[in-house]
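Hi support team,

I submitted a single chain yesterday and got back a structure, but I'm not sure I'm reading the token output correctly. Could someone confirm the output below corresponds to the sequence I sent? I've pasted both exactly as they appear in my results page.

Thanks,
R.
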Amino acid sequence: MGSRQRRRYHGGCAAPGAAACWAAALLLLMLAFHCVLSPPLGHGGRSDPLRPQSPTFVQSNNLGELRRNVLAMDTNAHASNVICDGSKMGEELWDSGTGNDFYGCSNASTEFAGAEANTESNRYLMIEASGGLNQQRTGIIDAVVAARILKATLVIPKLDQKSFWEDSSDFADIFDADYFISSLSEDVKIIQQLPDRISKKSLPYKIRVPRKCTPLCYENRVLPALSKKNVVQLTKFDYRVSNRLETYLQKLRCRVNYHALRFTETIHKMGEILVQRMREKSGGRFIALHLRFEPDMLAFSGCYFGGGETERRELGTIRKRWKTLHEANPDRERRHGKCPLTPEEVGLMLRALGFGRGVHMYVASGDVYGGEETLAPLKALFPNFYSKETLASKEELEPFLPFSSRMAALDFVVCDQSNVFVTNNNGNMARMLAGRRRYFGHNRTIRPNTRKLNSLFLNRTSMSWDSFASKVQMFQKGFMGEPNEVEPGRGGFYEYPLDCICKKSNARTEHNKDTADIMENHLTDREGRDLDFMEHTPLPAGSSNETESDYSHGNGLDIPEMDDVISD
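Hi R., thanks for writing in. Yes, this is the structure output for that exact sequence:
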């Protein structure tokens, strides 16, 4: 790959060294013959990501050879952009070119009635937020909106403590409850607990509303019971408010999400320490990667990652937890872009985009399937590889370790403050952070265009590195966190909070001629890409203590045990 020219010698073999010369020539001929006969990487199907491979696309048989190949490439000073510690694209890779032209705007209008005027006495709304940290976050945000719609007083939400996560944390253990209440005092009346005179009367009346319930849906399904019973508890409250609402309600969502809902001082302080240590090590800026390559995620995806019969058996066993899932069809899932990239593929994508070996990377992840062997290619591509466990001591993390949500909150803080956030899925944390980073200035957020990239990785042996990198850069247009990546009204609100983003009056007005094509490609490539798996399988019969209208019959949106394992 280097540009240095070898010194030429003219003439044949000199007599004194003729034997050695001819032996060397014969050896070269044998090596050339071997290369012709050797099968290319990926021959006969998808390459094995659990076996270390070098970025030169020549299959490595051991980790040492992988590292030697990477180091050999990176020490060539005049190689292509995969080598550079900065980027061939320059600062444009780290920052959105037009992001500064926009700002978050979620203030209430003058027509927005205050909480006192909008709250009826003797109407109390309780909710049970389900899932992991970020799924619970959506429930908390939507609970405020639901209380506003119903003109009710909201009781601080209860968090899921019984599911797969087995986290005993209460709201106040993760979020600043006092600030939450005071920050929203002009929007919705919120209290810590029910008044004694109400709680002693009877148990709250439980209802489960359908997913994506509209304001009219709440008025028809919940308001009659709330008016009669005074206290209603909405169970399994996640994505129970419509994605599309009037602008004043969307702005309320943003005030809750981006301003009122903040972590406790303990979590925030530890998160800031991790960010500071990353900046000290990197000299200023770093990438944060939400890898999401845990066994449960891979099993649910129904994809195949090249691990042979062992992988099929192990992931197949995990997949049996979900009784209603269809039989896995890996080829179809990959064609539709539903398969997450392997750690190696994420690394190759980032190198192709222009991030060099010297870039520092923070990885937010659970237990990666395949362990260190799976991570080895990514670490070879980005050796400055960190996590909260490597940045902090056991003593520092000890208060957080027993609680999955608090550990996830630390990752959230670091990913939120990273210069570049890379997500390998489209789950709850990815959506929440993508929307937040758009709201606060379109900070660079990269989501793999898996539909296009999966095809590219399958055929990567048939092209040069420069050609591969060029295709990656082309396919990632519209997936880099730029403004106008989706049309208004398209995409999930938490990922694209467009009602809460305004353009500065002095912003540049030139039109990007590629914008329309990028939007079209982005929306096309999003089809089938939704990894919020909880919304695609029928809901089984519910418990007897909830009303018949609690379920969304036939809408294909609920499966409780699925939420517990997959949500984040």
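A quick pointer for reading it: The two ends are 42 Å apart (CA to CA). Let us know if anything else looks off.

Best,
Support desk
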